[in-house]
Specification:
It contains 22 helices and 3 strands. By secondary structure, the protein is an all-alpha fold. It has 3 domains: 290 residues, Orthogonal Bundle (ABC transporter involved in vitamin B12 uptake, BtuC), CATH 1.10.3470.10; 75 residues, Winged helix-like DNA-binding domain superfamily/Winged helix DNA-binding domain (Arc Repressor Mutant, subunit A, Orthogonal Bundle), CATH 1.10.10; 70 residues, Iron dependent repressor, metal binding and dimerisation domain (Diphtheria Toxin Repressor, domain 2). Strands 1-3-2 form a 3-stranded antiparallel sheet. A hairpin with a 4-residue loop joins strand 2 and strand 3. The model has no long low-confidence stretch (mean pLDDT 86).
């Protein structure tokens, strides 16, 4: 049975995992923003995997020298210390490969990831037979273990998260300068090495905080998804940080909620439900990543700035507008040839190359835009171009023929090959470009095919058309 969301913050069992995961996701989202903007997304993946040997060695040492009872804080600090040490060692390895041996950045990151994670798996396999309980605990660090998180863990994670936030607050201007213009930052006296090291330290802290909830395999996803999603929503760094933080908090909270609710639902064996289904479990770490991935996909599809749906809508609107203008241009040519603003549906059919169904939709749209009006005569449907439609059709034809002349004159294209390009450009040429074309072509009267180029519209008349 579902429980109110507020209980995830008040329940004695659920509040620690919930708050701990939200702190982890908040820290990862903020640090991940700098990582994404620096175009070093793989660094999180590398350092998260590089910390695994340190976790194994630290937990092994803890089991040898400390009893299992009453040492949760000691165990956690030792594991976090081992993870941090191993991550810093991985960071140093990357630096050595890049600076001393001139290995490319992506190769150095990939090599470090493979080496350290391979060593970790090798150590884990060696402990499987002799220390089965230790082996089981170490496996939980691969994908996270949120259920056993307690208040002491939340307190330590809150301290680490606060430290990361303090670093961001104190060095925000320097970090911003290095990210967007490292040359300027160097000129004004900002130490690039210091800021780079600071960013690495924050990534290590974010990884260390997240290994308990998401694990070494998935924590890198939380560095990327919220930041990458927030980047699609704004160009302002402060706004991106704020949005990424919100996305991280949402992913952390609802990852815990869905993990608990879905696991509880399948754990309650009901009528007609097999025991295999009732034993399903949905770990919190992977569920957090799934929620973050869903947020990223939603933003990618529906973002108001660069969303795929919006881009498809704009593209579809532009193409449909081109079809309308093409039909208007065709009607204008026919009417100009016979010096009569009316044209019958049969005459349109003779020059229209599309389907009859599309033609009727386009004619309906042109009427709505005020370019044409319908006149029903004896047995024949006729359309009359309005003064507004005549002016707009003349403008399209003028832009088409100006562009053809420009391609032939300045681009030295054959005149029998310029039509397709002009068909596309006639819908995109602005008044400023039209004015420039008219100037450099010396106000031409004919296009390369000896067709007359209609006179241009004055600014006031053109502005009235755009209203």
């Amino acid at each position: 049975m579902a429980i109110p969301l507020i209980h995830y913050f008040t329940d004695s069992v659920l509040h620690a995992p919930t708050i701990g995961c939200m702190l982890m996701c908040l820290t990862a989202a903020l640090v991940g923003t700098f990582v994404v903007l620096r175009k070093k997304s793989l660094i999180g993946e590398t350092l998260s995997h590089a910390c695994y040997p340190g976790v194994i060695i630290a937990l092994f040492i803890e089991r040898l020298f400390f009893s299992a009872e009453n040492h949760e804080l000691v165990q956690m600090l030792i594991v976090l210390g081992g993870a941090a040490f191993s991550s810093f060692l991985g960071m140093y390895t990357i630096h050595i490969l890049e600076k001393r041996y001139h290995v490319s950045t992506d190769a150095a990151l990939s090599a470090t990831l493979s080496i350290f994670f391979g060593i970790g798996l090798l150590l884990l396999s060696g402990l499987q037979q002799e220390y089965p309980s230790l082996y089981k605990d170490l496996q939980s660090y691969l994908f996270g273990q949120v259920a056993t998180m307690r208040d002491i863990h939340v307190m330590v994670y809150a301290i680490l998260a606060s430290f990361v936030l303090l670093l961001i607050f104190l060095y925000f201007r320097e970090i911003q300068a290095v990210i967007f213009d490292s040359t300027f930052a160097d000129i004004v006296g900002i130490s690039l090495k210091k800021i780079e090291t600071l960013l690495f330290v924050m990534v290590v802290l974010a990884v260390v905080i997240g290994i308990r909830s998401c694990g070494v395999v998935l924590i890198s996803a939380m560095l990327i998804f919220p930041a990458a999603a927030a980047r699609q929503c704004s160009h302002n760094l402060i706004a991106v940080l704020g949005i990424a933080a919100i996305f991280g908090l949402i992913a952390g909270f609802f990852g815990v909620v869905l993990s608990h609710e879905v696991s509880t639902y399948f754990g309650e064996t009901g009528p007609g439900m097999s025991s295999s289904i009732s034993s399903f479990s949905f770990p919190t770490g992977p569920m957090i990543v799934v929620v973050a991935a869903c947020i990223f996909c939603i933003v990618i599809f529906f973002s108001g700035r660069t969303g795929l749906v919006l881009r498809l809508y704009r593209k579809g609107t532009f193409l449909w507008n081109c079809e309308q203008e093409n039909l208007l241009k065709t009607m204008w040519k026919v009417c100009s040839q016979k010096n009569n603003p009316s044209i019958s549906i049969q005459e349109i059919d003779e020059v229209w190359q599309g389907s009859r169904y599309t033609l009727h939709i386009l004619l309906f749209t042109l009427r709505k835009r005020g370019w044409i009006r319908k006149k029903v005569s004896t047995g024949t449907d006729k359309y009359i171009l309005t003064p507004y439609g005549m002016l707009w059709g003349r403008k399209i034809v003028r832009l088409h023929r100006l562009w053809e002349l420009y391609l032939v004159t300045y681009c030295k294209m054959a005149k029998d090959r310029v039509h397709p390009s002009a068909e596309q450009m006639e819908h995109s040429i602005t008044p400023e470009i039209e004015k420039e074309l008219t100037y450099i072509l010396h106000n031409p009267k004919n296009d390369p095919h000896a067709q007359p180029i209609p006179e241009g519209l004055d600014n006031d008349l053109y502005k009235s058309l755009l209203r």
